[in-house]
Amino acid sequence: MSDKDKITLPALMEEFQESNDFHLQPVKIGGQPFQLFYMTTLADQSVITKDILPSLRQVLTPDLEDIQRELPFINTVITTDGSVIEENILRGYLGLNHSGADECLMIPAKEEKIRDITVPEVEFSVIGPKQAFIEDIQTNIQLIRRRLPVKELKMIELEVGSLSKAKVAIIYLKDIANEENVNTMKQRISDIDFDHIDDSSYINQMIEDNSMSPFPQLIDTERPDRVAASLSEGKVAVLVDGSPTAITGPTTFIEFFSAFDDYFSSWHISSVVRVIRLLSVAFSIFATAIYVAVLTYHSQLIPKDLLSTLIQSRQAIPFPPIIEALFLELTIELLREAGARLPTKVGQTIGIVGGIVIGTAAVEAGLTSNVLLIIVALSALASFTTPIYRIGNTIRVLRFPFLIVAQLWGLIGIFIGIGVLLVHLIGLTSLGRPYLEPIFPPRVADFKDSIIRLPFSMQSTRPSLMRTPRSKRFKKEEAEKKKDIDE
User: Fold this and answer.
1) What is the mean pLDDT of the chain?
2) Model's pTM, two decimal places?
3) Looking at residue 345, what is its pLDDT?
4) CB of 455 within 8 A of CB of 474?
5) Which DSSP symbol is given to 115?
6) How far, in Å, CA of 156 to CA of 178, rounded?
7) Where are the alpha helices (DSSP H) in 219-343?
8) What is the pLDDT at residue 23?
9) DSSP 150-178
10) How far does Cα 120 stand from its chain's mean position?
11) Where does residue 115 fall: left (phi above 0), alpha (psi -120 to 50 degrees), or beta otherwise?
12) Which of 409, 413, 404 is CA-nearest to residue 322?
């Protein structure tokens, strides 16, 4: 910044005074006139009246350095830089300067209004910890440090957004996280050129490897325990001030179907539940498309016992299968959106009563068959088994392209769609790491905690995807001497 572009204190004060919440107060210190200025909406009035003003009255010398030593505050700073004064005032600091002087003492008095730590709402679990992140980044970092009280836990602070100036923290475990992953995350966040960052989801979309893909390539979570577990595996976490969710990466496609409470149950039960989730997702995507393809092109594949039931259910339907399928799918999406946007009590009523009433009325009016109604309802129910909200949205969207190709080319179209989908997934990466690992490239060692979860005693190494400098989590020989608690 050139001398001409430097912000002067008189110009800054003049601009601040255009806002009604700017307060300028004359005070006397050591018999000399000073002025105290701050934003009333950002500074804590109780701190000013109970701590700052009484301390200033006790100061006998009109010297900023003496005043700084007398004040019972840390993080005070003396500066003549107008940009520093502006930044601090807009973060809840008080400015104190001798009338007519450019040198200012900045005193922290930020008003802290944060909500209490509550239970997770999106990633709720029956057993396990019941704490969720809130909108204060310092509290969120504290929640992580409680679970990882080690000196290796490091944090890099960045500021993103020319207007919002959002504080962003990159958190990782030194000597466990791969430096390349940390540097990649840091570089991508530093390169963000956007005026306003309101939530971590902004950052998530801007640093993904392929922003054109409907598949999320980083996991966002509201659970501190999940973030701590991810850090111990060698991942990198990102927190944004004002956001109750954290971002972790690199990640894989399979990880989006692993709920964190899988680790609170025995490995047998957790493995079965994970397989059920994956099968449910496949059913949600393909069930309606297969119905349309079979009835439109491949009726010879229908068993004779089932054929009469289908004929009876469709004999009064005036529309082809694709029309009734799209009608029901769009109806389900409308009910979802209405339930999500309305108040909680009303939304639950709309979702349940609306589904029953509209579904029954559509069948009785001859707009759709009862068989398809059951299939669409089960598909919608199956899509709710995904533990990560963003991948659930992706599954909802994927059903429509498969419906279109099923209508155009039947089962051949569905297989073409599957091929295109697999090629897309194989080409995706997360922070440069293969997204479909351990399926492709195949890594047998990483199957221990992917589609199924093996006992903890068999998870002695961190995922090879992380390329961590310390791959060993514990000595397997010692663990084998004792049976695992869930074996």
Assistant:
1) 89
2) 0.88
3) 63
4) no
5) P
6) 15
7) 224-233, 267-297, 304-314, 321-341
8) 92
9) STTEEEEEEEE-TTT-EEEEEEEETTTS-
10) 13
11) beta
12) 404
pLDDT of residue 358: 80
Residue type, 92: G
The rounded distance, in Å, linking the Cα atoms of 219 and 18 is: 43
Instruction: Give the angle 230-234-236 at the CA atoms, nearest 5°.
Output: 70
Cα–Cα distance between 144 and 366 in angstroms, integer?
56
* DSSP assignment letter at 116: P
Distance CA 282, CA 217 (A): 19
Beta-sheet strands, E only, within 15-109: 22-29, 32-39, 77-79, 93-98, 104-108
- Residue 244 contacts residue 132 (beta carbons within 8 Å): yes
| Residue 379 token pair | 């598909």
Gap between the Cα atoms of 476 and 457, Å rounded? 7
Site of tokens 């339930």:
339
What value, to the nearest 5°, has the Cα angle with vertex 460 and ends 455 and 484? 35
What H or E segment, with its residue span, contains residue 336?
Answer: helix 321-341
- Each domain of the chain, given as residue ranges in start order, spans 3-108, 137-251, 265-322+369-430
pLDDT digits (tens, 9 = 90+) for 377-432: 899 889 888 989 899 999 999 999 999 999 999 999 999 999 999 999 999 999 99
Q: Name beta bridge partners: 248.
A: 219, 237
Asked whether 433 and 250 are in contact (CB, 8 A), the reply is yes
Phi, psi of 36 (to 5 degrees): -110, 130
Residue 429: its H or E element: strand 429-430
Structure tokens at 468: 């961590």
- Nearest 10 degrees: CA dihedral of 395, 396, 400, 401? -30
In whole angstroms, give the CA distance from residue 47 to residue 441. Answer: 58
- Residues 6+ positions from 173 with CB-CB distance below 8 Å: 148, 150, 152, 153, 154, 231, 232, 234
Q: Residue 94, SS3? A: strand
Q: Higher confidence at residue 275 or residue 31?
A: 275
